[in-house]
Amino acid sequence: MTRGMPAAYTSELAEALAADVLDRFLRYVRVDTQSARGREQSPSTPGQLDLSRMLVDELRAIGLQDAALDDNGYVTATMPATDGATHAVGLIAHVDVSPDAPGAGVEPIVHRSYDGSRIELPRGGTVLDPADMPVLAGKGGHDVVTSSGDTLLGADDKAGVAEIMAAVGYLAAHPELPRPTLKIGFTPDEEIGEGATLFDVGRFGAACAYTLDGSQPGEIQDETFSGAEVVVVFEGVDIHPGWAKGRLVNAARLAGRLLAELPADTLTPETTGDREGFIHPYALSGDAGRAEVRFIARDFDDALLAEHIALIRRTAERVAAEEPRSRVSVADRPQYPNMRRFVDTFPQVVDVAERAIRAEGIEPLREPIRGGTDGSILSQKGLPTPNLFTGGSEYHSVREWASVHDMASAAAVVVRLAGLWAEEPA
Ligand SMILES: [Zn+2]
Questions:
Q1: How far is ligand 1, taken at its centre, from the CA of residue 327, in Å?
Q2: Closest among 155, 159, 284, 184 to 231, alpha carbons compared
Q3: Residue 203: how many CA atoms within 13 Å on its side-chain side?
Q4: Ligand 1 centre and the CA of 315: distance in Å?
Q5: Interstrand relation of 220-221 and 387-388 (parallel, antiparallel or unpaired)
Q6: Where are the beta strands (DSSP E) in 24-125?
């Protein structure tokens, strides 16, 4: 790859932050913090604690004396307010990376002044082709970071971690800059849906917070899916096939029939977008005696989410009713709520973020996120927590990449957020 012309940073502040953000990012992504589903303790994997301990040390080196790691693997620290600032504002990112792509042995590569051409990574035959990646195609001149091709990069969410650390370090080095009380929180196990479950909102002590766990510059997400998991179990009658005539009831066939009878050309992740919800069977297991289908259901509207769950239940019960010797059970549990109704109770939190993003010369993009964040559950727990951009893309894959320029912009937005919150009336 030949070098293009270097792109400008969004501000002098971003430019001043860029080297530290990148330095931290390259250090953090090398730590294997992949989380694992079906955890029996928090965090689910010990590698997350390696990064969390490193962050505690670095926060103390910055001067945040109360930096600590709790028994569940949560890092917290406080940066005191400047005189006259009354608010306490949280800054949150997650240390784990997705279990859905290899996460150990990450060797990041920095492509300085990216020239807009195909990026062929040295391992795994991985190619980042701007023809298929319109967001990457727009980053000509940026410094772009990728993995070596056989692992994910870990920008989700170590970009967010690095941005918060760099912003806090910058504020510590510039005591004249106004800031509210800043509460820092680094969480484990976000990627397995547990990042906020053991988060002690009361002890954290912030009135509102921001996760840095989004993607493109300007994003501010205050609306997420509401999510639920639905597990359907069919029990058949398992008889040796040689003597099965008139007696065998095959649970695997019932599971197949359930999937065949659910909508396929609508209400699926592959056929919906924007504000449409879906039903997604993500795991299927079993045999003739017993078969299990696990679904997630998603919608922005809680009433529609309840309908999706009811559709799975109704269909499963009808399939089972056609074979009276079978049994079926359907269990659903909420996973996370749409944060919108909680964030709406504290409009200041989005308003200040939009002003901080504009102050960085970026147009705010307020779009609902077709997923959940730690902020969904934190908002429900009483800590309104919208999500801000980090500058990473193609998460959970070996093609994951991040723009240093955009990461620097995100860190600059955090510094500006602090300044604006310091001036906010109580
Ligand atoms: Zn994330």
A1: 39
A2: 284
A3: 11
A4: 34
A5: antiparallel
A6: 68-69, 75-79, 88-94, 109-111, 119-120
Measured in angstroms, how far is the CA atom of residue 337 from the centroid of ligand 1? 17
Residue 382 region by backbone torsions, left for phi larger than 0, else alpha for psi between -120 and 50, else beta: left
> Parallel, antiparallel, or unpaired for β 208-212 and 88-94?
parallel
Q: What percent of the chain has pLDDT over 90?
A: 96
Residues 119 and 1: beta-carbon distance below 8 Å = yes
Locate 297 and state its tokens.
Answer: 């259901």
Distance 156 CA to ligand 1 centre (A): 5
Tell me if 238 sits within 8 A of 325, measured CB to CB.
Answer: no
Q: Which two tokens stand for residue 100?
A: 């859905």
**234-251 residues labelled b (16+ CB within 10 A) or e (exposed):** bbbbbbeeeeeeeebbbb
pLDDT at res. 316: 98
Using CA atoms in the order 43, 48, 51, 52, what is the torsion angle rounded to 10 degrees?
A: 0
In whole angstroms, what separates CA 89 from the centre of its chain?
Answer: 20
79 three-class SS: strand
Q: 217: closest CA among 158, 118, 138?
A: 138
Q: Which two tokens stand for residue 249?
A: 């009831």
Q: Do residues 115 and 5 touch, judged by C-beta distance below 8 A?
A: no
pLDDT single digits (tens) 11-61: 999 999 999 999 999 999 999 999 999 999 999 999 999 999 999 999 999
Q: Which residues are catalytic?
A: 96, 190
Distance 155 CA to ligand 1 centre (A): 8
Of 204, 137, 189, 212, the C-alpha closest to 388 is 212
Beta bridge partners of 352: none
Contact 410, 356 (CB under 8 A): no
Q: How many Å lie between the centroid of ligand 1 and the Cα of residue 96?
A: 8
Rounded Cα distance between 267 and 299, Å, is 10
Q: Are 67 and 158 in contact (CB under 8 A)?
A: no
Query: The whole model's pTM is what?
Result: 0.91
Residue 41 CB coordination number (10 Å): 10
Q: Which amino acid is at 377?
A: I
> In the 8-state DSSP scheme, what is residue 8?
P
Whether residue 374 contacts residue 90, with contact meaning beta carbons closer than 8 Å, is answered with no
H or E, element range at 410: helix 404-423
